[in-house]
């Protein structure tokens, strides 16, 4: 659609004529032409700021949590995403570790003890 606006503009038509021909608001036509003049393109430009690091699955989970309860705090959302992956190896299930996990209300995934069939999850 943006390229069509530029084609019509280059043929000598004005904002109003382009707006009527394509059924777009005049302000949209003006913005497209302004962007084309300034940047030489009508394609989306790179965004500023840091890229997101959240994976789509976690994003869906957050959306479900917020939809369920819009008053959820960011700390509650963070806690809902956190889970600990354990292999139930005795050195990882010490009493102090288990108590810490319970005290901090950390979710743990059920994992068969020392199973050779399972590879550790790679996060990151």
Automatic annotation (TrEMBL):
It comes from the Eukaryota. Pfam families: HTH_SB. Residues 66-124 are annotated as: Disordered. Coiled coil: none annotated. GO terms for molecular function: nucleic acid binding. Residues 1-43 form the Sleeping Beauty transposase HTH domain. Signal peptide: none annotated. Residues 66-85, 111-124 have a biased composition (Polar residues). This is Sleeping Beauty transposase HTH domain-containing protein.
């Amino acid at each position: 659609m943006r390229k069509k606006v530029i084609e019509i503009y280059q043929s000598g038509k004005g904002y109003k004529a382009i707006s009527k021909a394509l059924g777009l608001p005049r302000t949209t036509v003006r913005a497209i032409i302004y962007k084309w003049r300034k940047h030489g393109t009508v394609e989306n430009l790179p965004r500023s700021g840091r890229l997101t690091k959240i994976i789509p699955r976690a994003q869906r989970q957050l959306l479900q949590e917020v939809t369920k309860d819009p008053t959820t705090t960011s700390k509650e959302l963070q806690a809902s995403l956190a889970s600990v992956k354990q292999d139930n190896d005795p050195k990882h299930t010490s009493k102090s570790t288990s108590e810490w996990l319970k005290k901090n209300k950390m979710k743990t995934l059920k994992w068969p003890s020392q199973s050779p069939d399972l590879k550790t999850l790679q996060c990151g």
